[in-house]
Specification:
- The complex is a heterodimer of chains A (179) and B (300).
- Chain A is α/β, with parallel strands linked by helices and 179 residues long.
- Chain A has helices spanning 7-15, 25-41, 59-71, 87-99, 122-134, 139-146, 150-162, and strands at 2-6, 46-50, 79-83, 103-107, 115-118, 166-169, 172-175.
- Chain A contains seven helices and seven strands, in the order E-H-H-E-H-E-H-E-E-H-H-H-E-E.
- In chain A, strand 6 (166-169) and strand 7 (172-175) form a beta hairpin.
- The radius of gyration of chain A is 16 Å and the shape is elongated.
- The relative contact order of chain A is 0.13.
- In chain B, strand 8 (171-180) and strand 9 (186-195) form a beta hairpin.
- In chain B, the strands form three sheets. In chain B, strands 7-8-9-13-10-11-12 form a seven-stranded antiparallel sheet, with helices on both faces. Chain B has a four-stranded parallel sheet with strand order 1-3-5-6, covered by helices on one side.
- The chains are: A alpha/beta (179), B alpha/beta (300).
- The interface between A and B is medium-sized, with 27 and 25 residues.
């Protein structure tokens, strides 16, 4: 179900040199292509992109790799979660995602709930927190828990689904599996 | 026939316009220039990479090497040699005067000697080399927190990428630390990047000139790129490099200034009195960028 891609390995294969920094658009585009290929070759529902052995991530690469992957060719029912993200990676990735109204899940610990980077409204953050805490809910359960109208709850869950931050199946919204 | 191009005794981003006015780079039919550096007593990294750009632009336009006389003062010429200036200048100028054979230093105050940026791989090399040195310098000499290092390396990366992505030719980068007593009274680390490429106006013209109408020019192009984060690419993810640099500098009270064509724009921190936009300067080819990060405390 969960497929891990080590970004440092894709980087080395993409540029054929022992760089550990994810910098420049050219490199970012090459790395993204490598990741896309690996995602399409695998059938797991979640891809964990492991940044733990990556040094610096600059803004251009954060855009080329993370933002464009989220906007790109992920097949339906497939999810992307970042792993091994340090404070400096977070800053660059958060910056470029906010600029494009995107968000991504980040796991620091495979047992705990995911956090997010990027731009999410208060409603979306609250809805995501409810989904993660309860392990899955429907529109009426969210509306009741958050004291919202059904429309407001439905909108929040739909948006989270579009952003691939929750899984939607048979009117139930569940956390993206990471283990 | 030759003509003398005056180089100010102290060549930095603020005196650069004296040099640009004397260079007359927009008049390529003038006689071969002689860059007279004999009286120069100090040059910032911005000045040094700018000199190389002037030589490159002349050589590319006229297919002949301009003349260059080296600084007369021994310590000055040795310092320039240590920065790697003459290694690069040797391919661009016909050099007159004795150039000492010294080892190019990338330690002490020269964090990164003058380095040519031609391709993405050069940016990787520069970023890889600078991180450990920058970390030491920012923490020990400037008293900044360790987390300043990554932002510094990101700023360096994005600054260099402007050459690869937009200039259409090669350029140079250098990173030095020095005491900036005159205006600030603190130590600073300075990233200087220069290329002789197409500049911001030509890079953005296709997408932006109609929008700005009669205001369109070098100043408006810099404003679009630096203030509004506009890029020549339609891709919505573009234009984030300069935005990221500004964000980093805002946190560490740093300054960004960019000169292109006949204009210069600056994001001015509280400690400086620079003008935000100067739009009627002498023409100089390509783009020149300077990032200045001050120490947390006044210099001793």
């Amino acid at each position: 179900m969960v497929h891990t891609i080590r970004v440092d390995q894709v980087l080395r294969e993409a540029v054929a040199t022992p760089y550990r920094d994810l910098v420049t658009r050219t490199t970012g585009a090459a790395v993204r292509t490598g990741i896309e290929r690996a995602i399409l070759a695998d059938h797991g529902s979640t891809t964990l992109l492991d940044f733990s052995a990556v040094g610096l991530v600059d803004f251009s690469c954060a855009d080329e790799v993370v933002a464009k992957l989220l906007l790109g060719v992920l097949p339906a029912g497939r999810y992307l979660v970042l792993l091994g993200i340090n404070e400096d990676h977070s800053e660059a990735i958060d910056h470029v995602l906010r600029h494009q109204d995107l968000a991504v899940l980040v796991t620091d610990d495979e047992a705990g709930p995911c956090r997010t980077l990027g731009l999410l409204s208060d409603d979306l953050l609250q809805a995501l927190e409810q989904v993660q805490r309860r392990g899955g809910l429907d529109v009426s359960a969210l509306a009741a828990a958050a004291e919202w109208t059904l429309e407001r709850a439905a909108q929040a869950l739909e948006r989270l689904t579009l952003l691939r931050l929750v899984m939607a199946e048979a009117l139930t919204y569940s956390p993206v599996p990471i283990a | 026939m030759t003509r003398i191009v005056e180089i100010p005794n102290s060549l930095d981003d603020r005196t650069f316009d004296i040099f640009a006015a004397s260079l007359k780079a927009d008049q390529p039919d003038l006689p071969r220039p002689l860059f007279d550096a004999r009286g120069v007593q100090w040059a910032s990294p911005f000045g040094l990479v700018g000199l190389l750009t002037a030589g490159q632009a002349w050589q590319e336009a006229r297919r002949e090497r301009p003349l260059f006389t080296v600084p007369a003062q021994d310590d000055v010429v040795r310092y320039w040699a240590r920065t790697g200036f003459f290694r690069e200048a040797g391919e661009l100028f016909e050099i007159h005067g004795k150039v000492p054979k010294v080892k190019i230093e990338e330690q002490s105050d020269v964090l990164l000697g003058i380095t040519a940026i031609r391709a993405s791989s050069d940016v990787h090399q520069v970023v890889g080399m600078i991180q450990e040195r920058a970390s030491r310098m920012l923490a020990d000499k400037l008293g900044l927190e360790a987390k300043a290092t990554m932002g510094f390396a990101m700023s360096l990366s994005e600054s260099c990428q402007n050459i690869v992505e937009h200039a259409g030719t090669s350029g140079w980068v250098s990173v030095h630390a020095y005491n900036y007593r005159r205006r600030l009274g603190r130590r600073v680390v300075v990233i200087a990047v220069s290329d002789g490429g197409i500049g911001f106006r030509r890079s953005l013209e296709g997408e932006q000139s109609r929008r700005y109408g009669e205001r369109w020019g070098d100043g408006a192009a810099l404003e679009a790129a630096v203030i509004h984060n506009v890029s020549r690419f339609r891709d919505p993810g573009r234009g984030q490099g300069l935005a990221g640099i500004k964000r980093y500098l805002a946190r560490w009270e740093g300054k960004l200034s960019i000169r292109s064509g006949t204009a210069r724009i600056a994001i001015v921190p509280a400690w400086d009195e620079d003008v935000p936009l100067d739009d009627h300067l002498a023409y100089f080819p390509g783009s020149q960028l300077q990032v200045t990060i001050p120490s947390a405390q006044p210099a001793e």
